[in-house]
Amino acid sequence: MNNMDVDCKVVLLGSVSVGKSSLIERYIHDKYSTTSNMTIGIDFVRKKEQTDDKEVIFGIWDTTGSERYHSMTRMYYRNANAAIICYDITNQTSFDKAYYWAQELIANEENCRIYLCGTKKDLVDNDQCSRDVDVNMAMKLAEDLKGDIFETSSKTGENVDLLFKKIAQDYINDKQFNGRLNRDGSIRLLQGQQPKLHRCCHLT
């Protein structure tokens, strides 16, 4: 399967065990499994998404979060139209790593739209004390990336379809996000800048 077979190339980025594969399983097959094997290298799926009166064919690359495969996953950033950077909202370390993934993505494909995806929302809905990633901090990162932010649950399906429908609509609208970078290639958030807000927030 190559890029000519799809309209919109989407890459999933994030640390090991944040739930990238479960997110895809819910979106593609509307299923959730309590047992999931770690992605080795790259997995690819294809799906048609209908939005308004138009159809978008997604080619979705699920990349591993394992550091040993990072040089391989960088190849899949090329020509990506959208990137979903996943983090576990019950694990602050996974969110801290989202900064790294954003830098990696922008360094390799600066015109790619970014969507932050906080996973495992069902755990927080059942126990608010399990939340480890501050909502305001996540929204701040989304602002600086001029990206959208969603909190999802692959277990219940909450906001999963909404995330991909938003990607499809943005692709159809074909409006590029600009102004994420300093001249040295760093994200403005890391330099303490305050860009204007351009985001779609689905946190509740």
Question: Can you give a write-up of this model?
Answer:
The protein is of the alpha/beta class and 204 residues long. The chain has one domain (3-202): 3-Layer(aba) Sandwich (Rossmann fold). It is 30% helix and 23% strand. The protein has helices at residues 20-29, 70-73, 92-108, 121-126, 135-145, 160-173; strands at 8-14, 42-51, 54-63, 82-88, 113-119, 148-151, 201-202. The protein has a seven-stranded mixed sheet with strand order 2-3-1-4-5-6-7, sandwiched between helices. The N and C termini lie far apart (36 Å).
Task: Give short descriptive properties of this protein.
204 residues, Rossmann fold, globular, alpha/beta, 7-stranded mixed beta sheet, single chain
